[in-house]
Amino acid sequence: MITEPGPNKILTEQTDEMQLKSIFSRVEISVNKHQSNQIAVVGHYDCAGNPAPKNVQIEHIKKSIEAISQKYPNTEIIGLWVNEKWRVEEVT
């Protein structure tokens, strides 16, 4: 598990090179050293790292999936949203 405040925002905006490198270096270890074959990008209600409303965060999740797919085309990448009741919804 790789945790980062507001990863969907970081991966979408791609403005903070240090944070991007940090995320991708940890993904690299997970995929290449631990043979992880699935990545989930998760956003959640009331996120302090990405305080955007749900619809904006959902778009960030989708764009994050695209960004990760470019680096890891053979890895299954899914999007998840954790709502205000802490229930998980798949982002499609």
The percent of residues in helical segments reads 40-55%
What is the rounded Rg? Answer: 13 Å
The coarse silhouette is: globular
Cα distance, first to last residue? 21 Å
Backbone structural class:
alpha+beta
Strand content bin: 15-25%
The profile of the biggest β sheet is: 3 strands, mixed
Query: Which regions are unreliable across 5 or more consecutive residues at pLDDT < 50?
Result: none
Order of helices and strands: HHEHEE
Number of strands: 3
Question: How many domains is the backbone divided into?
Answer: 1
Q: Strand order, biggest sheet?
A: 1-2-3
Number of helices: 3
The whole-number mean of residue pLDDT values reads 95
What do these coordinates show?
The chain is α+β, with helices and mostly antiparallel strands and 92 residues long. Strand 1, helix 3 and strand 2 form a beta-alpha-beta unit. It starts with 6 loop residues before the first helix and ends with a strand. The protein is 46% helix and 20% strand. Strands 1-2-3 form a three-stranded mixed sheet, covered by helices on one side. It has one domain.
